[in-house]
Amino acid sequence: MSLHGSCVALDEQGVLILGPSGSGKSDLVLRLLGRGWDLVADDQVEVAAADGALLAEAPAPLRGMLEIRGLGLMQDLPSKGPVRLRLVARLLPEGAPMPRLPAPASYEALGLSLPMVALHGLRASAPDRLGFALAAACGRARMAAGAFETGDALA
Asked: I need a surface site. Which of 58, 62, 82, 112 has the fewest CB within 10 A?
């Protein structure tokens, strides 16, 4: 299935970035690339189910491309794919409220579910927040409360 969004990966673990036009998807991808993340897809993402996982890659004509507003459309960038998706980040319009301690949320596609977090994509802390969220989604970090609450730390 084809989605309007972007996708990046860190250590082969993919994050699908969804949000309305102008919410900062490509800008967030650009900042993540500068921090060592890999480009998977920008603007359009192909998602498929295989072996109980969701896989993401760029459509062939867009592979290695990234829109940088105010500069243009870059091409022939190094890219990965397909990658296993571990997390979905839903970007909120600037000014939209974001709960301090959000309840766990999920994204459903092709009969499978992924954890989902909400972010303001244009904020300076967005790349770091996404890094922490991916670590939690992959089990490399624990949370006492919030989007990946396990409950045992509060007992």
From this structure: 112
Angle in degrees, CA 52, 53, 55, rounded to 5:
145
Is 38 known to be catalytic? no
- pTM of the prediction? 0.92
Examine residue 132 and state whether it is found in any structural domain, yes or no.
Answer: yes
Q: Considering the candidates 51, 76, 100, 152, report the single residue annotated as catalytic.
A: 100
Taking alpha carbons only, the member of 113, 109, 88 closest to residue 14 is 88
| Secondary structure of residue 37 in the 3-state scheme | coil
User: What is the rounded average pLDDT of the residues 57-68?
Assistant: 96
* 152 is annotated as an active-site residue: no
Give the pLDDT confidence of 39-48 residue by residue, as tens digits. Answer: 999 999 999 9
Report the alpha-carbon distance of residue 87 to residue 17 in Å, rounded: 9
| 25 noted as active-site residue | yes
- The residue range of the domain holding 60 is 2-137
Contact, 50 vs 123, CB < 8 A?
A: no
Looking up residue 49, the CATH number of its domain turns out to be 3.40.50.300
Catalytic residue among 27, 38, 42, 43: 43
**CA-wise closest residue to 45 among 11, 17, 21, 75:** 17
